[in-house]
Specification:
The protein has about 70 residues and is mostly helical. It has one domain. Helices cover about 60% and strands about 0% of the residues. The chain has helices at about 10-20, 25-50, 60-65. Helix 1 crosses helix 2 (about 25-50).
């Protein structure tokens, strides 16, 4: 979808620098994807902490599957 939005130049430059994506639309889409992913993760973790989700994985199982290269 094409839309016109006002984005602060400094923020856009920071996004381009931090993502390494030089084109504006792909850089903004990347940041939006990351924001949505993180929001879903936070919501799921909150549900787990509150006991709303039956999460039956031990800490050792979590750590063995952790991928530090996900960036």
């Amino acid at each position: 979808m094409r839309i016109t939005v006002e984005i602060d130049d400094r923020k856009l430059n920071d996004i381009i620098t931090l993502t390494g994506i030089n084109k504006k639309s792909p850089a903004i889409n990347h940041v939006l994807d990351e924001f949505l992913r993180e929001s879903r993760l936070r919501r799921t973790l909150k549900q787990v902490r509150e006991g709303a989700v039956d999460f039956q994985v031990t800490n050792d199982e979590l750590e063995s599957g952790w991928d530090d290269d996900s960036d």
